[in-house]
Amino acid sequence: MKNKFIYFLKVVIAIILLAIITITGAYLWPTSTLHPPESFKKTIINNVNIIDVETGNIAYNQYVLIEKSRISKIDSTKINVSDDALIIDGAGKYVIPGLWDMHTHSNQHSEWLHHPLYIANGITSVRDMSGQLNKKDSYWVGSKERLQWNKDVENNSRVSPKYVLQSSYQMDGEKAIPEESPNFFKLENPSQVDSLLQFYENEKVDFIKVYQQLPKDTYEALAEKAPKYGLHLAGHKPMFLSLEEAINLGQKSFEHGRIFMYECFPEADSLKNPNHWETYFSKSKAKIVQQFDSVQAKELMRLMQQENAYWTPTLQTLKFEANAHKNSFTNTNNLKYVTQVRKKLWWKYDTDYNKEKNLESEGNSVSEQFFEASKKQVAMANKIGVSIMAGTDVTDSYVFAGFSLHDELHELTKSGLTNLEALKSATIVPARFSNKEKDFGTVDIGKKADLIVLNKNPLHNINNTMDIYGLFLNGIYYNEEKLTELKNFTETAARSFHMNVKALISLVNSSLIRVQFAD
């Protein structure tokens, strides 16, 4: 009996040691590196049609000269240069500016799991709405990482979109911050605001990401003092003060499709009580939609337009909640680009929760009603003149880097935007919001050569933005073969054992993730 026990113990120890060795080996296993294509001092696109995303006009049969990273000449006659230039036949093709995704979340594995898919789908610039606190996180990235990625793109040594407007970590009050972090991150009172702003100014951050549960007096202090540090506020509608107050206090962009629904129904003040707003919201979602006050909403939209506040509806998040119970939605081919760790430990929980809620309802679920209502509100806001920006909320459930931006453009057109207006929301509007229209947003001489060459005209059908012939990032040309390679790279990385181990360990070790899940 003793010998059997000893044998059993040895087997268990051997299995444990083997598991430790396997996991350690996978974690330390080197990751593959993507390299940009060959660079040329001069590139010419011959005989291509250029779409003006500001007017919708098309300049047919144009010749475009790109020198290093900028457009140096656009002409209706053939451009002759030396033999070592790269020549691209643009006959029958259409050129638009590179697309922008203005609401994303990057992490320590984005280099393998997100960046290739952005570029393969024509997204050349993104705004990351997440960040770090006072130390490097094992999961989230911060301004230091993103600014280094930008330098690498400028040096043509990295495949990555440009990261515009660096974000702080999400500010949501003390419950959202790990206990061991400096107290000023918790923003329990207005006296901590200067310390927070000073810290993020030193981190070369551009804006404070505000979340829902900041105390009203702290939010007001943030809004008042942020400009003195060269920062602005962007993010969720704060729950404990009105949307009108937040707009007048200068919040520069508002995220997600619910901002007007939170505000425009008879009992909206019940959502502003810090003690029970979540309980009230969970039991009153149907009432919020059914008693929506469109007159009040239009007044707030006019105020947004007057105060130049932008809106990023991220319709993809509400679309997921509305369709989580439908196999036709959840059985998508894009799942091959997502690690098993994320699918099983994050997305499955989210999907099961929303599926159960949707199946409880007869007919359209409340989530479906929210989704349809948000699209109507996008149409209202656009008609009034609110600046709409395309954003997706990567890496939320069933939001896919790159691919979902095209889905967002499609949903924006279904919401009432024209194809041209949808293109604007992902090109010139975000460039203007970011104060970068001098370099980006349109196809013009002197601007950066971040361009997409499309096989078909997106003004005829917005889905033609997916039909990509080639792409320029910082003047470097990615042909169809290279774009396919980028997709294959992420597919391989996502299913690899070592990447899944790295993703799991980064999640487990992140104090920021632990606090998020606990909350």
From TrEMBL:
Keyword Ligase belongs to the record: no
SUPFAM superfamilies reported in the protein's UniProt record: Composite domain of metallo-dependent hydrolases (SSF51338), Metallo-dependent hydrolases (SSF51556)
GO molecular function annotations of the record: hydrolase activity, acting on carbon-nitrogen (but not peptide) bonds
Annotated transmembrane regions: 7-29
Presence of keyword Nucleotide-binding: no
Stored Gene3D superfamilies: Amidohydrolase, Urease, subunit C, domain 1
Pfam families linked to this entry: Amidohydro_1
InterPro entries membership: Amidohydro-rel, Metal-dep_hydrolase_composite, Metal_Hydrolase, Metallo-dep_Hydrolase
Domain of life according to the entry: Bacteria
Boundaries of every Amidohydrolase-related domain copy: 213-475
UniProt keyword annotations, A-Z: Membrane, Transmembrane, Transmembrane helix
Protein name, UniProt field: Amidohydrolase family protein
Organism, as annotated: Aequorivita vitellina
